[in-house]
Design brief:
With about 350 residues, the chain is of the alpha/beta class. About 35% of the residues lie in helices and about 20% in strands.
């Protein structure tokens, strides 16, 4: 259920609605937008009559939310959420570009990459410190040392950092260094981790699981928001289908569907989406044309020698060319590139 306030409702009227929700044993989630203020109600609302709220002073309407995901639904918040990451806005008119290596391998590697992607126009540096791998014998990341190197790259270039957090016990150390905490595809339904990230006051990027439906994905986002963290963005990184010619099948359909269902920003990961370096640019262009709020691309100074995902990582000149193409597509749909 959500309760929409009238445009000129007073703070006292708003507070009275919140207190009534609490008195019924339900949880209120105040949501303020540029056009209206809403109190989203979470809990067993089956026995609550919306008209009981609709008659309160300052209330414009009280309605039930038809979707099982409540707080992330556009029914509750019509306008898109804009997440501010230290001055970098994700979800507004501008296209946000995140770029960097799959794994942080060394000081030289991450600094060279950070300088190059910054020069090409990226505003956020991606890089894995903890790396979940299919094989236990493959490179697992530098862990906290990798976080320190990412922080060093941020200090030199000014780029913000996004990196993956894999477990509840590593949340504090990753949050200490990162500007955005990424939940990988394998952890999309790791509910203890999602709930823990709901208590962190930093943005979260939630990647879609290998076989996750859009509904399951949005319900996973609901776990984070319901625990108090509204700054969640969704990342489409391809799903597993019968196709074997590509690493995954990037679901372009999901982008406009998500934009109609949720107010959360949507990011596309073309590198994992197709898994083939020479086709990454095409998928990035398609994602932006379909309405994504940003892209996250793997870039490496020497992809052939990368310790992980070299086959889908762009070399630095290739990323510079991708940025040129991205600007062309963004201009065509009247969106700038941040």
């Amino acid at each position: 259920m959500f309760i929409a306030m009238k445009p000129h409702a007073t703070q006292a009227e708003f507070d009275a609605v919140v207190e009534k929700v609490r008195a019924l044993g339900l949880t209120p989630h105040p949501i303020s937008g540029t056009e209206r203020r809403v109190v989203a109600v979470v809990g067993n609302t089956g026995t609550v009559d919306p008209d009981d709220f609709g008659m309160l002073p300052g209330v414009a309407e009280a309605l039930r939310v038809s979707q099982p995901f409540k707080l992330v639904s556009r029914e509750v918040k019509e306008e898109g959420t804009i997440i501010d990451v230290g001055g970098v806005q994700i979800g507004g008119r501008a296209i946000t570009v995140m770029a960097g290596p799959c794994s942080v391998e060394s000081r030289e590697q991450i600094l060279e990459t950070a300088r190059a992607v910054k020069a090409a126009g990226a505003s956020i540096l991606r890089g894995g410190a903890w790396k979940p791998r299919t094989s236990p014998y493959e490179f697992q990341g530098l862990r906290e040392e990798g976080l320190k190197l990412l922080a060093l790259a941020r200090e030199e270039t000014g780029l913000k950092i996004v990196t993956e957090v894999m477990s509840t016990d590593t949340v504090p150390v990753v949050a200490e260094y990162a500007d955005i905490l990424q939940v990988g595809a394998r952890n999309m339904q790791n509910y203890p981790l999602l709930e823990r990230l709901g208590q962190v006051k930093k943005p979260v990027m939630l990647k879609r699981a290998l076989s996750g439906t859009i509904k399951e994905w949005l319900m996973a986002a609901e776990y984070i928001v319901a625990k108090g963290n509204p700054n969640v963005m969704l990342c489409e990184r391809g799903i597993r289908t019968f196709e074997t010619a590509t690493r995954n099948t990037l679901d372009i359909n999901a982008i406009p569907v998500l934009k109609s269902l949720t107010h959360l920003p949507v990011i596309v990961d073309p590198s994992h989406g197709i898994g083939i370096r020479k086709h990454v640019a095409a998928i990035a262009r398609a994602g932006i044309a379909a309405g994504a709020d940003g892209i996250m691309v793997e870039v490496h100074p020497n992809p052939e020698k990368a310790l992980s995902d070299g086959h889908q990582s762009l070399a630095i000149p290739e990323f510079a060319e991708l940025m040129r193409e991205v600007r062309v597509i963004a201009l065509a749909i009247e969106r700038p590139v941040m």
